[in-house]
Amino acid sequence: MKIKVYISTIILLLFAGFVSAQVTFVTKVSKKKLGVNERLRVDFEMNEDGDNFTRPAFTGFRIAAGPVQSMNHVWNNGQRSFSKTYTYFLQPTKEGKFTIKQAKVEIEGKVYKTLPVTVQVVKAVAKPKDGNNAEYAVSEGIHMVTEVSNGNPYLNEPVTISYKLYVKSGIIINDYSELGKPKFNNFWSQNIQTQLKAQNGTYKGEPYPYVILKRFVLYPQKSGKQVIEPFSIDVQVSVPTQRRDVFGRRYETVHKTISSPQRTINVKTLPEAGKPTDFSGAVGDFDFEVTTSKTSLDANESLQAKVEVTGKGNLKLFQLPKLNLPSSLEVYEPEFTESVTTRLSGMQGKISDSYTVVPRYKGKYPIPSISFSYFDPKDKTYKTIASDEIIINVINGPANTIVAENTNETNQKQAIATTGSQFKFLKTDANLTPIATEDFFKSNLFYGLLVAPFFFIPIILLVRRKKRAFDNDIQGSKTRMANRLAKKYLSEAKKKLGDKEAFYEVLEPALHNYLRAKISIETSEFSKEKISQLLTERNVKDETVRDFITLLESCEFARFTPASNVTITKDYEKSVETISQIDKQINR
After folding, report:
1. DSSP string covering 317-336
2. Which has the closest alpha carbon to 145: 200, 210, 196?
3. In angstroms, rounded to a whole number, what is the distance separating the alpha carbons of residues 221 and 159?
4. What is one Pfam family matched by this protein (predicted)?
5. Strand 25-29's sheet: what is its strand order?
6. Average pLDDT rounded to a whole number, residues 470-478
7. What is the pTM of this model?
């Protein structure tokens, strides 16, 4: 009987040892259902120390903070328990059901994956109006408005749209990103470059600093009520609170989506009363003229006739009037040119059509007057400008005879051999001269190639001597190898220089991997005191050790501090230099 009890006990102990030896890697979420205005905490927890952790893509969420890495050792009655956790804080981007997919980690050479977890995001939930709550402070202290210069314009009259971000004093904007581009249906639009310069203003009667994020000049292309859609941005801000974090700071960093309100513009149609028959849609304040490069020339010569409009208005949105010339003048297709700038008040500049005209016969030919009509929104009237009639005098050339038979008139034009003189303004003589040739033998090139080897031999010997000295420079070789090693470990971090969170997420494991490879330290032993001790024992200078510890602290602080307080490029350069110094100094 006692033997059976002993056997059962041994089996239970073996089973318990087997169960305790199993590796667990799980995903834990703070809640399975949350509002779109709440945050979700996600923990990826393992019971054995692992490396090469890979998080899933958080579809439907943006990372508000993290990853935060923590480890826990517990000894109870001689039994050791260990846990390692990667924590993320996520902000939903929309409503719906979303799956936190599998995370991966490598433990003792094997890859383990978590099971997917489904989370439901519902409509925004009411939150307490707590002045110490960072999200509440942001919702009350940051506002974006859409400023419209004219809410009741005429068709094709310019309207300026300004997106202003008002920020209450004490709140710090660390960064922002646009959630899509502003859309202006039924408008011609032009973006106006702005500088993010803080200015003093008021919002609902209270003093508020503000910045102008974007400005556009719009020209409505359709009458009636036209909607200016909301423009949304995601901001990362630091908010002062009464609570202190582990570093003694009073600021809390949060993400918030800010949207401008929808605006409606009532676009008026242009009046029908008094509209000229030649009106082509020009709206503004313009001048108009027709000019020619010459008024006296010979047959088959050419001249330039220019139709030009200058002023302020929708210069890119209407057609210029066409010249109507006598059939005895050969006219080529016009060349269109524009010199238009778009400012806050709208377009201004000039546009023109330039015609090349070639007369074929002797005589005087009129370029008839043509008119240009536009609508002036200031005076609310149509205006018409007529050009002067221009007489072209063709001095020399064949006569153009006209013979009338019965009641019909026919033009009998004398055939002319084209001389090409109509394009005299084009240079056709290239002034080419023949190239003198000479025999290769006893030429300058021949003697040059003959002497060249005697000139290059001393250079080759000098280069070989430098190469030998370079190879014998042991200290220099160590320095170069150290630099290559540093760049190898930090190559992935360099790719993330433009993304603060991704950069420090990659930099910290790169530093850890370097230490594991160099001084055989386990991940579970990663403490600043242990690292300092091991590096000092291997003859690394105290200054270099301090620099390495400072880099590790920067990685920790970067999870909590605003981007403006962390210089990413400086930390990358410092990482390269520090790893290089350790590699040169260790066990030297």
Report:
1. SSPPPPP---TTEEEPPPEE
2. 210
3. 12
4. BatD
5. 25-29, 40-46, 79-92, 61-76
6. 57
7. 0.51
